[in-house]
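Protein entry
_____________
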Amino acid sequence: MDHFDYLDGAMHVEQVPMAAIADAVGTPVYVYSTATLTRHVGVFREALSRLDDPLIAFAVKANPNAAVLATLGKLGLGADVVSGGELLRAIAAGIAAGRIVFSGVGKTAEEMRLALEHGIFQFNLESEPEAEMLSDVALSMGKRAPVAYRINPDVDAGTHAKISTGKSENKFGIPYDRALESYAAARALPGLDVQGVAVHIGSQLTDLAPLEAAFVKVGALIGKLREAGHDIRTADLGGGLGVPYDPSKPVPPSPADYGAMVTRVAQGWNVRLMFEPGRVIVGNAGALLSRVVRVKQGAQAPFVIVDAAMNDLLRPSLYDAWHDIRAVRPAGGRAAANVVGPVCETGDTFAMHRDMDVVQADDLVAFMTAGAYGATMASTYNSRALTPEVLVSGGKWAVVRARPPIETLIAGDSIPDWVRD
């Protein structure tokens, strides 16, 4: 459910007309709904209500906007970060370091130092060399780093290959069958406090079976680790729960179904459970608002050329991802059309032969379910300015990231003297 609805024939976000935002800010622009964020956090928390004090750490990579993070922090969420920059963003937004988990395969010594200085809750280690580096960094600071190993359970999540993370050929985690050996080595490192186990098998999962298979392996491993003398106190079950993009596809499992499965599988683990939801919190809370530049007749179907492009919303080009495309003020007709952007790439295509609202030049369209992995993946390709972002709450709205003038982008370059001469 989201709060993008039609009122008097025009799309609103909560109580604000989308057209009013477009007129004031220009297009393309990302628009986020506070009411939707609040609802999704409540639904996810309710799904886990039978668990004892779970840590829900929002996956910052899904949407790192400061206002979004501050909203989620006020609602009690922690943060899952994968870089020093995301760590600083989360802290600047008011999320306590004690509710932050640091994941990712390529943490540098500098990033480790930064996280230790702030006192984060846990590092999710992904290799033995990383464990050795973190131990050395912690000892140099007179600290012990709280850690878990991310386990690769060799479970196929059944999602797109580029967002699958739990198969043996993926770069993430340590192999499940090497876990006991890796934990034994970590326990011998004086700068580490080995406290948990972590797993994450992919993003946009539409079936609970792969998740359950991975979690069963985690439970078995916790038992083996305790038998080996390890004091396992946490289990990070990652994120990845899918959201509905294409209405023609089966609806992904609900947070309630997910919570019931976790509660059943994790019974008796005697650990603090941790979760890293991202898309399921922010996906439906955002839309990319764009204006039609012109409609061009194609060989088989018209091309609807919009002012948003692959640099603004990369998912369709990168993953062949499906986003519902709606007219902000539908005229009533529908027809098949190809929706494309102005970037000089054939891949700058949002939809082909899509049955959609008939639109014409200067009409507004909204790309729905764009709150996750939208603005955060935007670039300045073709020297296009980064997309601004707007947060709405009831009848109020504010620009929470302004569109930088193109002159700022140009000023970031420098021309050496020998070129000027």
Notes: The chain has 13 helices and 21 strands. The domain at 4-31+283-411 is CATH 2.40.37.10 (Lyase, Ornithine Decarboxylase; Chain A, domain 1). The chain has a mean pLDDT of 93.
